[in-house]
Amino acid sequence: MPSVFCSSTRRFLIAAVLYSHAMATIALEPGASYRLVDLTHPYNEETVFWPTSPTRFELKTLAEGETEGGWYYSSYSVCTPEHGGTHLDAPVHFHKDGKATDELPLRNLVAPAVVIDVSKQAAKDRDYRLTVADVEDFESRHGRIEAGTIALLRTGWSRHWPDAKKYLGDDTPGDASRLSFPSFGLDAATLLVEQRGVVLLGVDTASIDYGRSQDFPVHRMAGAHDVAGLENLTSLDALPTTGILLLALPMKIEGGSGGPARVVALLPE
CATH assignment of 4-52+82-268? Predict the structure, then answer.
């Protein structure tokens, strides 16, 4: 079941987004109420990582229980690779001169979003890649994708989480040569980035490149345009096609190539 938080009483007037030394404002309808949809997998011992990752998520207990003063106290140590679970790939992940995680402008991480649904195609072909025709079909029905938009690709793949073999296509430790899952195709991703001006690519699989890719062309193209990627999203089936405000905020790791992210969709009711 998708994790959905509904709020009928919470009201939003203006959301102010700070980035660099400037301010951008996102105006929300006065007096309106909104649903919040969590698109994030929790981090735990079952979190899926790339097969070549030398480490996984670790949560160690530093303190837990009653103190000498008579109150309860808990504290934990967290260790995780940047790229695993629901996370962001910064442009520098695949482009030497790309922005690091802490350098991404917030206007690219809090922005309108659309969902392109290829779940039917992916159900028939686990190596399916989004095509230019798919994007054109989407726009014929929903209008041209505007610059500054986040493009989310729904494949339906999060239904396999956290079964790594079903999700990735192969779960051999240390070997990423036999992975198989759907994602963006290079031509379609290039159209979205270069011609539509999208600011972020997101997908409910392990990569913005499809599983069988060995040279990661979508990562490289997106990174060269300072477009980040969101991977391992979930609950995209709980979203409408348009009318979404997405909040995709990664851990602000200075100089990082990515980081765990809490991704939430804001939907007007």
Answer: 3.50.30.50
